Amino acid sequence: MRHLLSILDLTIQEIDDLLASAEDILDHPDQYSEACRGKILAALFFEPSTRTRLSFESAMLGLGGKTLGFHDASTSSTRKGESVADTISVVSGYADIIAMRHPKEGAPLVASQHTRVPIINAGDGGHHHPTQTLTDLLTIRRELGHFENLTIGFCGDLKFGRTVHSLMEAMSRYAGVRFILISPKELAVSPVMLEELRKKGIPYVECESLEEHMGELDILYMTRIQGERFASQEEYLRLKDSYVLTPDKLAGAKEKMLVMHPLPRVNEIAPQVDEDPRAAYFREAFYGRYVRMALILKLLKEREGKPVSPDKGRPHYPRNQLPGGVCKNPHCITTTEQGLGQIFFQDEESGEYRCFYCENKAE
Ligand code: CP
After folding, report:
1. Rounded CA Rg of the chain
2. Does the Cβ of 103 fall within 6 Å of ligand 1?
3. Residue 313: which residues within 8 A CB-CB, separation 6 or more?
4. Helix H segments across 145-280?
5. Centre of ligand 1 from the C-alpha of residue 264, in Å
6. What is the pLDDT of residues 208-259, one digit of tens each?
7. Which of 355, 320, 362 is nearest to 340 (CA)?
8. Contact (Cβ atoms closer than 8 angstroms) between residue 6 and residue 121
9. Alpha carbon distance 22, 166 (integer Å)
């Protein structure tokens, strides 16, 4: 069964088709208003959200379908200790498609092993956020018209920012792309991701100054410092205002540069920047509904004609496992989910072993 756990689950052609479909829905919403009649989306949000949850729900309602779910895991049986696997085993009997957000990395992969219906990752810890990336890509396509030969500055929390990780993976597939990675040293992109960029031959610069490369950028992707992922509140307070974009800092930027942000913002973009035509973040949030409509349609269409069974089938695990490893990532789903084994798979290119769930290197 098809799921969307990472943006790399989609080919470039599929992304192009999804973005074209989203634009068609945007232009002709009435033609799609009955497309999901009789279908149900479950929105399971184990972590707070405004845009992702409401745009998923709005997307399904706009397609003529219905929604159910929870936006606070403490009102679900998670509070009583129910596992992700059991929750999904049950809810996948009540809905045709599931969008889920979870604070633990790899939780949607666990869900995909226990579901009868497609799972969409609506954000898992600091790991992936593929539907935000689809939103970002639609924004870039509509506002710049192409993905090639772009210099993209990612600024802020590049360690825990899942939207950064997914967008970097997506943009790494296009020719001529270059990254400027702007962060305090403590919140830099992980060595594993930098290694991936080197392997793919993507040029990048790491720096701490927001202004230093401003004039080179086609996109400035600002991010919030992710306070909820810090082990130390003191460290968060020290770093939280590392970058604040103000109109004067945009003085040296290209006339057509896009300022993007997945939102919510806290203090990293001054409200005065909103008046600048380059500020694309509220348009970006607007496009989210349409890419999610296109995605729901695609995943449900691929399931058409296949009956849903009361038996949910068996999970699939990778070959080439490393016996005896323990994942050291405190944000990995293996730290909380009952009954999950420690599974490490061998990366075909590097030969390294990585956690099956959160993809951290085996130590
Ligand atoms: N961009 C994003 O994921 O926003 P929410 O946390 O409000 O869903």
Report:
1. 20
2. no
3. 116
4. 162-171, 191-200, 233-239
5. 6
6. 999 999 999 999 999 999 888 888 899 899 999 899 999 999 999 999 999 9
7. 355
8. yes
9. 19
Provide the pLDDT for residue 346: 85
Better pLDDT: 347 or 283? 283
What's the pLDDT at 353?
87
What is the token pair recorded at 122?
């609506």
Place of tokens 């208003």: 33
Least confident of 152-156, 213-217, 254-258, 328-332: 328-332
CA angle 67, 229, 244 (to 5 degrees): 95
Q: Where are the beta strands (DSSP E) in 78-118?
A: 97-102
Q: How far is the CA of 48 from the centre of ligand 1 (A)?
A: 8
Residue 24 phi, psi dihedral angles, 5° rounding: -65, -40
Give per-residue pLDDT as tens, 76-132.
999 999 999 999 999 999 999 999 999 999 999 999 999 999 999 999 999 999 999
- Give CA separation, 335 vs 278, 332, 339, in Å: 42, 6, 10
- Establish whether residue 132 lines the binding site of ligand 1, counting it when its CB lies within 6 angstroms of any ligand atom: yes
pLDDT band at 305 (very low <50, low <70, confident <90, very high): confident
Q: What torsion do the CA atoms of 90, 305, 11, 220 make, to the nearest 10 degrees?
A: -60
| Ligand 1 pocket test, candidate residues 7, 52, 56, 136, most atoms within 8 A of CB | 52
Do residues 295 and 275 touch, judged by C-beta distance below 8 A? no
Q: Are 318 and 347 in contact (CB under 8 A)?
A: no
User: The tokens of 175 are what?
Assistant: 């020719």
Q: Which residues are catalytic?
A: 51-52, 80, 101, 129
Using an 8 Å Cβ cutoff, are 89 and 112 in contact?
no
